[in-house]
């Protein structure tokens, strides 16, 4: 059974004003007893928990992980392509998002700041509550810091120079990218200090609940923020703290990270909780939550194979071909290919209980094409994705990522030989040969390229590849950019500055002094 974070709250502020010539200013403020206000709401342990649950709620809507954020993270990379008839979607991968049309990227921006506002409500009001359970109070504050850090992480990473709300105010000035990363790091540090390693050993209202932020998740994202800012020493130390917690391990079956059958497993540091069984059946597009909203994802239908979904996102042939480069110790193709991609596999491949070759026999274009399998409900329990209601949790941070990021930090801090050990832990799961034997004595530069290859095959369609491309500086490297163009024609549309999305026009209009990102 999934955890109880699905509880939402919505706080409204009302001001009743009666203007006469014979009343004092205090008499003009009338509280509606039927409407909860900030003053009447934040009173109890349960109020505090409901408040942080609302901050989690912003992860579930269209702007974030119901649909938009995976698209924004995936489509610019060389592991995906899009022939979507919806220009706002197809143009993401072509580095051509339109300033006058904020569809998708503007929804994400708005929802990140909704989540930040909700987290700030907790951080502002919960310290003043005389809670009966002080440990619960600390956990709630830790989760609020984590969630604010996560939303800010996305905002800074995708939009570069953005406001950094840390308190409740009317206007928030635009800040520099460096200031943004500093705030992200501060929030994850605060979260790591307050959060438990798990909720199985705590007592209180949140005891045993899965899906809540933990110390490991906070440290993982803290290390990632250090890595993205090239602070390799601090990143190395932080990732080692995660490893030394001793509570994470790789699951034996790679595909178990992308279905609804083994969620919140030993490899997962943090995942967004979706469920077909919680809430109503309406889709949570955004704004204030409605009682009929479900807690399902539209990722599966958006990425779904032809005839089973909308096919707005497809794997690239570069991805398919890179899986053929190195065979397993038994001489087989890397098993991550079949867990990630639907294709006309010799010997047959099943999707939604049907044979791929038979399904597409009448259409050579589809028969010889590639479709997404990762995060699809395609193992036979459902006929297709057209009910829009996937219950598969979105895995935001996996232990495999920690291991490969730690290996990268070792390489960048002069311990290239040490990187082999942690890379091999990820390779062992899928039966790849010992890298130290296959490619002994790699230089630091060669190891960088090897880590890039390892990450490409481990994390396709998980929103990591373009983040890697951008932070490695490949778009500013003429040789690397030409290589990317040879793999994915969408990179031919890239112009400097377009590695970031535009600041939405509504933000430009409502926040005086905001400067648009370069090239828009």
From TrEMBL:
<dbReference type="Pfam" id="PF14322">
    <property type="entry name" value="SusD-like_3"/>
</dbReference>
<keyword id="KW-0472">Membrane</keyword>
<keyword id="KW-0732">Signal</keyword>
<keyword id="KW-0998">Cell outer membrane</keyword>
<feature type="domain" description="SusD-like N-terminal">
    <location>
        <begin position="83"/>
        <end position="227"/>
    </location>
</feature>
<dbReference type="InterPro" id="IPR011990">
    <property type="entry name" value="TPR-like_helical_dom_sf"/>
</dbReference>
<protein>
    <submittedName>
        <fullName>RagB/SusD family nutrient uptake outer membrane protein</fullName>
    </submittedName>
</protein>
<dbReference type="InterPro" id="IPR033985">
    <property type="entry name" value="SusD-like_N"/>
</dbReference>
<dbReference type="GO" id="GO:0009279">
    <property type="term" value="C:cell outer membrane"/>
</dbReference>
<feature type="domain" description="RagB/SusD">
    <location>
        <begin position="267"/>
        <end position="520"/>
    </location>
</feature>
<dbReference type="Pfam" id="PF07980">
    <property type="entry name" value="SusD_RagB"/>
</dbReference>
<comment type="similarity">
    <text>Belongs to the SusD family.</text>
</comment>
<dbReference type="InterPro" id="IPR012944">
    <property type="entry name" value="SusD_RagB_dom"/>
</dbReference>
């Amino acid at each position: 059974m999934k955890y109880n974070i699905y509880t939402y709250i919505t706080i409204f502020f009302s001001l009743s004003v009666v203007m006469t010539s014979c009343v004092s200013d205090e008499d003009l403020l009338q509280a509606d007893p039927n409407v909860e206000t900030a003053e009447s709401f934040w009173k109890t342990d349960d109020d505090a928990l409901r408040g942080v649950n609302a901050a989690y709620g912003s992860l579930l809507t269209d702007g974030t992980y119901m649909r938009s954020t995976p698209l924004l993270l995936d489509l610019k990379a060389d592991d995906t392509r899009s022939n979507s008839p919806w220009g706002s979607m197809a143009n993401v991968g072509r580095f051509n998002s339109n300033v006058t049309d904020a569809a998708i990227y503007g929804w994400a921006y708005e929802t990140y700041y909704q989540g930040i506002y909700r987290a700030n409500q907790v951080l502002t009001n919960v310290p003043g509550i005389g809670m009966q359970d002080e440990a619960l109070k600390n956990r709630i504050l830790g989760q609020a810091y984590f969630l604010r850090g996560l939303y800010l992480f996305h905002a800074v990473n995708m939009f570069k120079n953005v406001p950094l709300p840390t308190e409740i105010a009317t206007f928030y000035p635009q800040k520099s990218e460096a200031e943004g990363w500093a705030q992200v790091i501060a929030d994850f540090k605060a979260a790591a200090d307050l959060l438990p390693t798990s909720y199985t050993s705590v007592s209180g209202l949140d005891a045993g609940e899965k899906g809540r932020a933990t110390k490991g998740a906070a440290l993982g994202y803290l290390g990632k923020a250090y890595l993205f800012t090239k602070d390799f020493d601090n990143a190395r130390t932080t990732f080692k703290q995660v490893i030394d917690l001793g509570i994470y391990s790789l699951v034996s079956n790679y595909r178990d990270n992308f279905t609804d059958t083994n969620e919140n497993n030993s490899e997962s540091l943090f995942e967004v909780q979706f469920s077909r069984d919680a809430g109503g059946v309406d889709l949570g597009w955004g704004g204030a939550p409605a009682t009929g909203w479900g807690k399902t994802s539209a990722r599966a239908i958006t990425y779904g194979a032809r005839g089973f979904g909308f096919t707005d996102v497809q794997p690239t042939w570069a991805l398919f071909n890179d899986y053929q480069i190195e065979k397993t110790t038994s001489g087989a193709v890397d098993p991550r290919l079949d867990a990630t991609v639907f294709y006309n596999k010799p010997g047959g491949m099943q999707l939604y209980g049907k044979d791929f070759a038979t399904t597409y026999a009448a259409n050579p274009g589809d028969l010889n094409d590639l479709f997404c399998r990762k995060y699809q409900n395609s193992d036979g329990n459902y006929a297709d994705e057209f009910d829009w209601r996937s219950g598969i949790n979105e895995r935001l941070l996996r232990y495999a990522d920690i291991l490969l990021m730690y290996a990268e930090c070792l390489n960048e801090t002069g311990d290239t030989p040490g990187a082999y050990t942690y890379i091999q832990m990820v390779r062992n799961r899928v039966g790849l040969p010992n890298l130290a034997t296959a490619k002994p004595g790699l230089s630091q530069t060669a190891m960088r390229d090897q880590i890039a290859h390892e990450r490409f095959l481990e994390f396709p369609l998980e929103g990591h590849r373009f983040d890697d491309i951008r932070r490695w500086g490949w778009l500013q490297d003429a040789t690397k950019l030409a290589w990317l163009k040879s793999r994915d024609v969408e990179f031919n549309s890239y112009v400097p500055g377009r590695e970031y999305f535009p600041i939405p026009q509504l933000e430009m209009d409502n926040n005086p002094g905001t400067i648009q990102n370069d090239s828009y």
